[in-house]
Amino acid sequence: MPEEDKKLAYLKREEVKTMQKDVAGLREGEAKQEREKISQIKTAEETQKEQLREREAQKAVQERKLAEEAAIKREEEMKRMREERKQQGTILEKEGMAKQEERTEGFKEIMKETQAREEEARKSFLERVAAKAESLPVNTQDEIMPPPPIAAPQPQKEIPKSFFKKTSFFQKLGVRIVLIILVLTVIAGLTSFWYWYSKVRTKPAPAPAENIKTELIVPAALITSENSQTIEFSNAAELNIALAELLKTAGTPGQSTRLVLENTTENKIWGIKEFFEALPIKAPDGLIAKLNHDFTLLVSSQEEGQRIALVAKIKEEGIAPILDSWEKTMESDLAGLFDLLGKTAPALSPSFKNGSYLNVPFRFQTFSLQDLGIVYTIDNEYFILTTSWQGLQKILDKLKGEPVSLLPFSPNQGAEFVLKSLSLKEKIGQVLLVGLGDKTTALALDKLLENVQPGSVLLLEGNIKDETQLKELTQGLQKASLSYTGLPLLIATDQEGGAIARVTFAQEKTAQNDIADADQAFRIGLKRGEELLALGINLNLGPMLDSAESGDFLFSRSFQKGLAAAAELAKSLIFGQKESGIFTALKHFPGYDGIIFDPEKKLAILPKTPDTSYFLRAAAAAPELIMTANAVYADLDKNLPFTFSPAAIDFLKNKLGENYLIVSDDLCQESLLDQFSLEEIVKLPIKAGVDILTCSDPVKARAAAAILYTAVTNKEISEERINSSVLKIIQLKESLVE
Known about the structure:
Blueprint: H1 3-38, H2 44-84, H3 90-133, H4 169-200, E1 227-233, H5 236-248, E2 256-263, E3 268-269, H6 272-278, E4 291-302, E5 305-314, H7 319-326, H8 330-333, H9 335-340, E6 353-357, E7 360-368, E8 372-379, E9 382-386, H10 389-400, H11 415-421, H12 424-430, E10 432-435, H13 442-452, E11 456-459, H14 467-484, E12 490-493, E13 495-497, E14 500-501, H15 518-534, E15 539-540, H16 563-580, E16 583-589, E17 605-606, H17 613-618, E18 625-628, E19 632-633, H18 646-656, E20 661-664, H19 670-673, H20 678-688, E21 693-695, H21 698-713, H22 719-737
Helix pairs in contact: 1-3, 11-22, 12-22, 15-16, 20-21
């Protein structure tokens, strides 16, 4: 700041101080003079008031002194501060001086206003005093009040700016070291975090995306089924588990369930390619490409257990050679499928065989006697693969639009329902197995069926000429039976093999004594049954299990292997016949053992019943019927042949059980007709508990029907007894529908 400006500012401040002192002294002197002028005219009261005003005036003077002292102190403080801020620069000093001058000017204005008020108060006071002296009324409201204290202006605090001292070299070095340590610490922390984040920590699984399922379109079924079920799974392992659990459950025999395979992960319905890969099934090259993606998967319920079948449409030709080549490895390639079905042993035959149903040829390979194996065919535009013969049969029935049989009732109706719908004549006919006679004309045959309405017929050599004639005969018999009774026939013959083979043109006629082992026995039974079934014959009266030694009349027809071996061969042969789909009658219980003559010509009387344990072992194959022997066993009944004796029939049931239909050997034998009347021959077996009476002579069969009808009508034989046998026969025939 220039020296002249500083002096000018100083003079201004000194001038203010001098003015304050002069004003104060002037007011004091004037006040003193005024007090002396009016002291003579004051009353006591006025004197008291005056003293009060003097004290207040003195107080005001004192306050002004304090204010002046404060102003002086403040001035000194400001002077000190200005000295300290000399180094702050011209701009800050000018701003500070300007602010100080503003405050000084403000103080001057306040002083001027105060002086003006005091001057007015003094004049008013003098006027009142003069008026008092002249005895004029005094305006008390204009009393002279002591001047208000002059408020010293409050100084604004200014925060002095601090100045840092210049840092030393060591201080700078220390700061830098600290900063470096901090930076290194941060870097180390970031490095550790990166290593933990990328290497050590367990990465959280991504939150599953919201599964917005689109509505899936289930392909139309290629064939109908009784039930349908959707299997939901997320991967192949879950599908295998679900299928395994499903196959463990027992279904209703004869019914099938369609399975729809829904993969929830992919949100789609699996086709044949995914199904083969999941099990897994090793399909030959080119097979899947020739089939449509959509297919129908079925689980069929059978008495033997659950079975699997699949049907797919063929979209390209050339599938037959692929399947033919696949047969070499099909068993191993389908292991994943058969593991679900409990396959534990290799196929009974290493090669595939031919079969036919509804004029559709098929190929099959059997794994077990419980209708388990590989069965496949190509039917027009369809490829069919099943694990059982019954499964293929049902599928072909549905594809062809034909029933399994011509039965007018379904298995669901129950045998009891059918039984109630039959007349007594029809019931009696069901318990008869009737021969047709060698020279029976078509007209006579029709009359026989119309009059007797038998439930079963017996075909002998005289009834069979060739394949075409036999098929026409069996078809005609079935149509006639359905026309008269509404029930199918059991069409039976004796196809033991060897000398006893009623169908002479059949390929399979191996004699029982030529069968070497159980495997051969099964194959023979299977082949024999298939041939008979194709000809329309559904019941084979064999195998024959009678034990015979060399010289016995039946020795040439027996197995000739000993009791235990014969039982095993018979069991396997029965298994084969059941696999083919025909019924079996195991004969002749308890056995024509030790008889050297023809028991049909002469009644055999044996002192003791033969060992029947081998019949029990063979019966493990569950033949549908047991044929009884027409011989007398004295230890059971001295007077009656086994077929006529209630004690003997009870013996059979105790040994083998009551689940079999009991059918008699031919009742029209000379050995019986010579000893008993026809009425006894007909009535006694029924009373004893025999279910089906065999009568090879059609004439005597008509008479037998009439005898039974009369016996029931006369209450000699109860209708309930007839009903019990007919019910079992209908239950057997129901399986033809299934």
